[in-house]
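To the wet lab folks,

You asked to see what we're planning to order before we commit. Fair enough. Below is the target structure as tokens, and below that is the sequence we designed to fit it. If anything looks off to you, flag it before the synthesis order goes out.
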């Protein structure tokens, strides 16, 4: 998907953080950007930023855990813009930072309802519109470096598990949609400066219980050292993610990686998998 000017993008979770950065980048490329967020006021603010820079933006409220809310959003966006060429299923939450033993069932249910089922429901809602304009349309899901390795410098098991699921889902989706000319990429950033913990707390339904305070005291000793782990603590500005993603979309790359210094962590995981294959092959 090379030509973006004059086309239509949808960015969920676009009211802040990575989503905002993506939306601003796409707007600057000449796309009409439908900024969708559970906090509609934030979505409208980002859409106004795009408009102020000479682009075309549309702010809309959406709850990605609700099939009905997504259906209304998809219908409204298509009615206003005529169709969809690019979907960025970006909305996500971080329900708890602390040991798995301290994760509540509510933490798990909240995390999976947004980070996994929210992406599945978002794609389902917009796939008909993308197919209308295929080939040369594209889907981006937002996972995390924590969807490739669990050793990300902080204990957040539910989040990591949800991002592994996102990567697996996205791999299957890419294979299935390739024949239709619909590309799929999965964004796997490490630490990005954002208000994720704040928005996760503000938007957490009461049915899932209260958001817990961050607990880094139980982080394993190895994540407090130097090397890749120390580098992961240096947060990338959210605005820097958009240009990286844009380049990957144009090249139809699957994994969109924002932090090259994290490669040793991924290498170590893959080497561990291969070593276990070697062990299994021994008599």
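Sequence we intend to order:
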């Amino acid at each position: 998907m090379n030509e973006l000017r004059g086309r239509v993008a949808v960015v969920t979770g676009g009211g802040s953080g990575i989503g905002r950065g993506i939306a601003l980048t796409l707007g600057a490329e000449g796309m009409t950007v439908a900024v969708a967020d559970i906090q509609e006021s934030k979505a409208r603010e980002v859409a106004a930023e795009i408009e102020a820079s000479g682009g075309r933006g549309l702010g809309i409220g959406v709850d990605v855990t609700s099939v009905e809310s997504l259906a209304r959003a998809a219908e409204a966006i298509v009615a206003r813009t005529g169709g969809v060429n690019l979907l960025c299923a970006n909305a996500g939450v971080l329900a708890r930072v602390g040991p798995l033993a301290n994760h509540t069932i509510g933490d798990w249910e909240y995390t999976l309802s947004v980070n996994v089922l929210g992406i599945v429901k978002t794609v389902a809602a917009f796939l008909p519109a993308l197919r209308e304009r295929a080939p040369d349309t594209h889907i981006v899901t937002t996972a995390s470096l924590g969807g490739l390795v669990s050793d990300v410098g902080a204990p957040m098991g539910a989040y990591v598990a949800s991002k592994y699921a996102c990567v697996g889902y996205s791999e299957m989706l890419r294979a299935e949609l390739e024949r239709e000319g619909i590309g799929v990429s999965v964004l796997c950033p490490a630490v990005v400066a954002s208000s994720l913990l704040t928005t996760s707390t503000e938007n957490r339904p009461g049915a899932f219980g209260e958001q817990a305070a961050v607990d880094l005291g139980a982080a394993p000793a190895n994540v407090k050292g130097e090397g890749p782990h120390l580098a992961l603590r240096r947060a990338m500005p959210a605005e820097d993610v958009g240009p990286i993603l844009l380049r990957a979309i144009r090249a139809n790359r699957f994994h969109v990686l924002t932090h090259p210094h994290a490669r040793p962590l991924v290498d170590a995981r893959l080497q561990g998998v291969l070593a276990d294959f070697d062990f299994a092959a021994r008599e």
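Structural context that might help your review: The CA atoms of residues 178 and 184 lie 8 Å apart. The chain has one domain: 8-281.

Thanks,
Computational group
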